[in-house]
Specification:
237 residues, Alpha/beta knot, 2 domains, 5-stranded parallel β-sheet, two-stranded antiparallel ribbon, binds adenine, transferase, tRNA (guanine-N(1)-)-methyltransferase, tRNA (guanine(37)-N1)-methyltransferase activity, cytoplasm
């Protein structure tokens, strides 16, 4: 997968050289390049922002550098993290992981001139996504989050593909709690069932815990869980 990130803060992306993303880049599964938006400015001050039409606080990113930047790295699927985007989900991560070329546009200040997005949309798919109902300084950290979610779904990145199908959100439920050795710690014991070796009972326990956790912590998610996915034993939970 090819990924181009356009930002005024290339240094933010140091962490994308670490851990499994760094390894995916090393092995060629991920070809990621970070570009400084100011490369595409033409004035001595390398200006990327200006005051908003209509007034109001803050600054807006000017369209010209963005137009040139997107022409230079595109076309691809343009992803624009923004608090006004649609909520980013595991399904979006899976959809992005199936594409050959992603372009991330990192907005700062009050955002990017809307015409950049409207113009790009005439040439390529555009996805405006929000990580949650809060406001960050800019899109950089959001891109790191999205790239983690996407990279771990690329074939060959995770050793054990089972961990993808079993995990939280993949099945529309939160995962059950997990434990490791020692069996007893600070007078807290690992649930007996997990040490029983009875795989049927363990699967049932995990399923119950997933249902209980999801219902109590994420009623919104539980409400969207298809009743047809519940079996007879689930209904007792
Ligand atoms: N940029 C600023 N706030 C953001 C958010 N909540 N999600 C994604 N990108 C953002």
């Amino acid at each position: 997968m090819r990924v181009d990130v356009i930002t005024i803060f290339p240094d933010y992306f140091g962490p994308l050289s670490l851990s499994l993303i760094g390894k995916a880049r090393g092995t060629g599964l991920l070809d990621l390049e970070v570009h400084d938006l100011r490369t595409w400015t033409s004035d001595v001050h390398r200006t990327v922002d200006d005051t908003p039409y209509g007034g109001g606080p803050g600054m807006v990113m000017r369209p010209e550098p963005w137009g040139q930047a997107l022409a230079a790295v595109g076309p691809g699927t343009l992803v624009v993290p923004s608090p006004v985007g649609k909520p980013f989900t595991q399904a979006d991560a899976a959809a992005l992981a199936s594409l050959d070329h992603l372009i991330f546009a990192c907005g700062r200040y009050e955002g990017i001139d809307q015409r950049v997005i409207d113009d790009a949309a005439t040439r390529m798919p555009v996805l405006e996504v929000s990580l949650g109902d809060y406001v960050l300084f800019g899109g950089e950290v959001a891109v790191i989050v999205i790239m983690e979610a996407v990279t771990r779904l690329l074939p060959g990145v995770l050793g054990n593909a089972d961990s993808l199908t079993e995990e939280s959100h993949a099945a529309g439920l939160l995962e059950a709690p997990v434990y490791t050795k020692p069996a007893s710690w600070r007078e807290l014991d690992v649930p007996d069932v997990l040490r029983s070796g009875d795989h049927g009972r363990i699967a049932r326990w995990r399923r119950d815990q997933a249902l209980l956790r999801t219902a109590s912590r994420r009623p919104d998610m539980m409400a969207g869980y298809p009743p047809s996915s519940l079996d007879k034993a689930d209904r007792k939970t």
